[in-house]
Automatic annotation (TrEMBL):
InterPro entries recorded: Integrase_cat-core, RNaseH-like_sf, RNaseH_sf
Record PROSITE patterns: INTEGRASE (PS50994)
Lineage of origin: Bacteria, Bacillati, Bacillota, Negativicutes, Selenomonadales
Protein name as annotated: Transposon Tn7 transposition protein TnsB
Span of domain Integrase catalytic: 230-437
Classification via SUPFAM superfamilies: Ribonuclease H-like (SSF53098)
Amino acid sequence: MKKHDLLKDGNNIIRVLEVKPDKILIIDCIKRTMPVWVESSALDSFSGWTDEVLNEVTNFTAADIDALDAEQKRTMYDRYTLIVPILPFVADERMRSKVIGSTAIEHNISKQTIRSYLCLYLAYMNITALAPRKRLDDDLELTQDEKNIRWALNKFFYTTKKQSLMTAYTMMLKEKYCDSMDVLSNAYPTFYQFRYFYRKTKKMQNFYISRDGLKSYQRNNRPLIGDGIQSFAPAIGVGMLDSTVCDIYLINDAGNLVGRPILAACIDAYSSLCCGYVLSWAGGVYSLRGLMLNIIADKAAWCKQFGISMNVEDWSCDKLPATLVTDMGSEYKSENFEQIAEVGVKVINLPSYRPELKGMVEKFFDVIQATYKKHLKGKGVIEPDYQERGVHDYRKDACMTMTDFEKIILHCIIYYNSHRIVENFPYTEAMIAENVKPYASCIWNWGRSQMGANLIEVGTKELILTLLPRTTGKFSRFGLKVNKMRYHCDGYTEQYLKGGEATVAYNPEDVTSVWLLENGIYAKFTIIESRFEGKDLTAVQSLQIAQRDIAKGANQDNLQAQINLARHIEAIAGSARSSADVSVKNIQDNRKREQRKHHKNYMKGAES
């Protein structure tokens, strides 16, 4: 028998701490009481044991010190420091008690706590036994009450109905702690127990998603730990598209109320420059065509049309961004808009209800509207309370036309581009060295000269033809048939004779011409039916429908006329003399006699 040996007899497990000829100092490893001296003969029935078996019996896991976290290590060494002065006097009960008392006074801690640490260390002879064990709540077996509380939280609290904790608690009592007569039983959890379990198990992510929905969580609550817009727009050339209804009512030139205009814009994600805009009464694909044309337009010349002069450097965008980021709007997902990829532009459609992913364009609308609204109060601008009952009717304040309002929008955009300070822009050392001012136009102009700038130069005509809607045309002997109209172009005789289908771009606003698309080249075809020249597609379709309706309305009369015609022919044929044998001789003589017999002098009737 040696010092620190483990011995076992039945359910008793002891550790040898000191060995003398006639007695032995031991500690009970199960009860972990203070060490005592026993006679050597008292341990004759004990047999040797191992630390691994002790750990298994006492459910103790010997941990690696390196595997402990900082808090566990600190606590472990603090506890060991308390018992270190006692260890030399473990075998001397009087001195041991004296040192425990002095240590308790010095560290302002109870004697029993120090004894517990001492016995814990001596039982396992492992300093890691003094480290606090982390409680794994998920591994603990829940009581029936805790299971009921968890069920009630999941069913009544973590839902989109957003019930209160008290309501969930009440529903739990009703469903789980009442008899068939809805009488509450004598034993049930208190509301404080219910609330304690909720706070102990609450996870904020689960709270937000279950009560507000995943889309709301992603928009309003998710951790914002990304590198911002620069993570996917490291240089200029990523445009963000969106549109909004302006917070103002406008009138027409005659003074009649028209409504609220639609503003669509393209914002460069890197510099936040407004690449282009369009203000119109109609949204959808129509406004997108105007927006794309405005992006590549000469902005100085455009502003001059409205009597506004500006420096070219303040708005020097005349090329398309190579990447366009949009939401899931129908106009952006349309096949018509995706045709812009033919000029080299990549279109990225973001998930629904994720406006924060195109925050630049959303911020643009906020800044523009906040800029003009404070100066146009009482002139048709609507306030946040415009939908409340009894509020002022802002429509009656309308006094500006679309032209007036577009001038204001242009001034706001020029300010936004060239004088608004871009806060929190991630300046590089090169930008600081070149003293780039914190304006969107200055950042844009600097970015155009840098590596990575991704802009596409495209002509106006090419862009217009690319964005036109397309359909399938059919060649035949009668020409190229598109939208039930016929078109012609020189040099396509072989196609007219062979027939076949082709892709055709058309202008819904004027059907005079269509453009055949072959290998990326547009060939212009002119309408054959001159009655349709200069008309839009809707008017032509109305004419075609009206013509079919007229023909359809006369169909019954036509059938009746055919029936009457057949009846008359049959009556006349039935009354004709039938001959069993008709002579076929002397036909020429017979013809001449009949000619003389039926000959008429038509001039005789004219002279009379």
